[in-house]
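G., the chain you wanted modeled:
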Amino acid sequence: MVNLDAEKLVAARRAVEFVEDGQVVGLGTGSTAAHAIREIGRRVREGLQIVAIPTSLATEALARSLGIPLTNFDEHQKIDIAIDGADEIDSNLVAIKGGGGAFLREKIVAQAATRMICIIDSSKLVPQIGAAKLPIEVLPFAAGFVQAAVAAMGAQVSLRRKADGSLFATDQGNAVLDARFGLLSNPEALARKLTSIPGLLAHGLFLSEIDELITGRGDQAECLRRSA
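Predicted structure as tokens:
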């Protein structure tokens, strides 16, 4: 049986090897990114000199607990390297991200990064994205309107709730819709349609932000870079 968590660690360790002294580092959110954050924390304790921008309050808390120096976009507008996971990604490095709800901040960090590395276990690499739910961050005032608009595009849409039944809220205090479109033959066209809906603040389609993919497969790390 494949140990997916071990594969996540393999990918994380390979990605963290690219972090160098003096860099501004973007820290992702989620179980795979947490492996990378812990590895960065280990290297910081060994003398690595970096500052980091976290993509969520949970990531910020983890980084602080590990002694990783933090900064923000007021101090640094560019990021040298960012490391984050994905819910699904294909061989063209088109991904769905945001199962943890941090995809708006993750997208900002990814676009600010000179080098954006996605780390995954082998189950997340798929021939075609779309089996995973697509998260959509919405202004609470417009949640019903946006939900109807997305449903009219052919998706099954639900308002995300926590385990206790209460509404899920992002770190920005916004609601999240989870949309299922099925396999996506044209994610670029879908992204354009979603972006045109007023009240929709962000979606989890990452079309061009990811520069490099590191997949843990067994005890090996497989690297794939975006074509020029």
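The two ends are 36 Å apart (CA to CA).

Shout if anything looks off.
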